[in-house]
Amino acid sequence: MKILKVIRHTTFGEKILLPIYEKTIEPILYFFSDRGLFTDLKRKLYIKWKASLHIKDSNNISALKNLYKGKRCFVIGTGPSLKINDLNCLKDEYTFGLNNIYALYGQMVYRPTFYVTGVPRYIKWILNENKGGDLAGQYVFLNNYDGKQKNQGKCCFIPMFSYYYANHRFIDHEKCKYDQMIYEEDINKGIIAKATVAITAIEIAVYLGFNEIVLLGIDMDYSKAKKHIYENDEGITDDEGARWVKDNTGIDDSKVSIDNSSLVVKAMLEGFKFWKYEAEKRNVKIINATRGGRLEFFERKSLGEIL
């Protein structure tokens, strides 16, 4: 595996080895895991192969493991139920901000303790425009999607593998079931994404040692045009990151085109169901403080009851 790691970061590895791996070995792993076989194979082979190709020694974040042991944190989604006042009430708490939450920063009196995104086109915006230092108070966790990034300043790069839901070449959302999912305890080896960045944040929080995780603004309801707090009533997004992405990649993220029947939404719910049971095994308490919404796997409490 060390040889693979060295080769990966050469032109030969980039142009020759990685495409061969993705076209030969990876389909075999998908073939077996897709049929519910060889759980150990999925964990040991898939993660080791992928990690050997994507992880740099300079990206090791083991020093952060259990740094916040026994503490409480909030994972803040951007569902329309979220209120700006909710965010400002959390200025003295440990918080995870996700994806486009930066669109609300002008109305907030603080920055989240941590920021997480796995979307490559937004990571390019963050890096190109040098936004990392302004996204969080302590650490910014980003997907090392191309295996080339090194930790810098507040930015920590972790491989986030689109194993269960995004690689339509070998697997689809219909086959994404909670009892087939895996949590890799050492996130230095990579996070196996489960359809939503909120679950990625949960997995980072567990690695950091938090044993009480409060979910806020995670509505899981895509039935209306306005799906996020930062959108207008027609569901249109117009923030700095989205504009940069459109201008520089041609991808228009101004409107989300999913609804509650979308397979990716079903995959998200399966991921939360997975963490209902995984949290119980690990003595981690997950509480849902979201107003309304469709996420019913966790104990519900209002934000007022928690604070």
Would you mind describing this structure in some detail?
- The structure is a single chain.
- The chain is α/β, with parallel strands linked by helices and 307 residues long.
- The protein has two domains: 1-54; 60-306, sialyltransferase cstii, chain A (Alpha-Beta Complex), CATH 3.90.1480.
- 36% of the residues lie in helices and 12% in strands.
- The strands form two sheets. Strands 5-4-3-2-1-8-9-10 form an eight-stranded parallel sheet. Strands 6-7 form a two-stranded parallel ribbon.
- Helix 5 links the parallel strand 1 and strand 2.
- Helix 6 crosses helix 9 (240-249).
- The longest helix is centred in the last third of the chain and has 19 residues, at 263-281.
- It is globular, with a radius of gyration of 19 Å.
- It starts with a helix and ends with a helix.
- Residues 164-172 have low confidence and may be disordered.
